Amino acid sequence: MEAGKNELRRSMGVWTGISVVIGTVIGSGIFFKQGQVLETAGGTTAGLMAWLIGGLITLAGGLTVSEVGSRIPETGGIYIYMKKLYGGFAGFLTGWTQVAIYAPAIIASVAAYFSQLFANFFGIPMTWTPLIGIITVVLITALNSLDNRIAGAFQVATTSIKLIPIAALVIFGIFFGKADALGQTVAHVTSTGSGNFGLAILATLFAYDGWATLANLGGEIKNPSKNLPKAIVFGLLIVILAYVGVTYGIYQALPANKIVALGSEVPYTVATQAFGQLGGKLIAIGILVSMIGTLNGKMLAFPRMVYAMAEEGVLPRYLKRINQAKEPIAALWTTAVLAMILIVLSGADWLSDMAVFVIWLFYAATFCGVFILRAKDRKQGITLDANTFKAPLYPLVPLVAIGGALFVLINTLIASFSMVLISFVFVALGIPVYYYYQFKNK
């Protein structure tokens, strides 16, 4: 198709947007991170507060990005925001980082985790997990190659299903749990250390990551200036309630030291305790659905940024091809192939940690963009219309978002200096690519 005919379909409403936010954030973290966060925090009260504060920092980021997205309602997400705010070079590095590092690494890690749980549930040898992960990516990519309303409906369905095990854990813990949810301390300290509240918040922030992927769909959301902020804010509020609720329910159901000792087995133990062996299996199915929904949400959103960059002429032209269903088919399958390569060749845990660190660099810069946009409004005497979303309690909310970003970056720098250096190398590889396309497009 000709470039002028490339046009994505605006068919996603606010409920699909909310489902994308919930679906891309709630994956395995809330189920598997309970022991780590609790042990790091040192007690149940501090652990619960860590999940709450991590959620509030994430919400501040969501409110801040919502204002930027309301002003720049285009496909491409923070790639477009960074370009509009800081120029083409910064925009390209943002997009390059997502295309080359963040998107394929996150998709690969989610598919790898899914394949491990899938193999364990069905008794399949673990040597088959790379193949299961690849097949999963292929199937989800094929689904997203159809009309985006199909992938959107699948997102709504999986999001609804994934809330069932969350509700079960919350209800059982609150009404039938016999432990004290608050006031317990962790008696045994392992190598992760105990009583470090800051690192506990950091762990929850990684579990909350993924909400900004909705911004990549700005060109396909109906009335994006109004619906994009609604979807991000309400989606994050639901996620925060789910995370804090599950945490409280688990703390009420099991003693603190047992939660730490069980690690990733916590949800199965609570479910089995509540509903017997069947309950454990249902929780496993719920987590599998949760992870497949997360994978679908990321595959729905990430390729749109690849498409936007190809449209701008800073990535190969073939990546802006769309199919008869008006889907960015080349960007979809290129992202999928990169993810499948990483499933075979790379360590998913390490790559996902690096990807999350790198993306927070650009989150921080995007958060600062609110101050730039408002300063331009004052200078030019512009009054925003009623449909433009404004971050509440300005400048407090954007400052909290920026503070949260700096917190993530500094703590990661201290904890994993070598990983940070390697991540900067990957970002820097985009510099010659940028100048190549600058020269080519002259």
TrEMBL record:
Its main location: membrane. One of its GO terms (molecular function) is L-amino acid transmembrane transporter activity. InterPro entries: AA/rel_permease1, AminoAcid_Transporter. The chain crosses the membrane at residues 12-32, 44-65, 85-114, 126-146, 153-177, 197-219, 231-254, 274-295, 329-348, 354-373, 393-414, 420-437. It is found in: Membrane. Keywords: Membrane, Transmembrane, Transmembrane helix. GO terms for cellular component: membrane. It is a multi-pass membrane protein. Pfam families: AA_permease_2 (PF13520). This is Amino acid permease. It comes from Weissella hellenica.
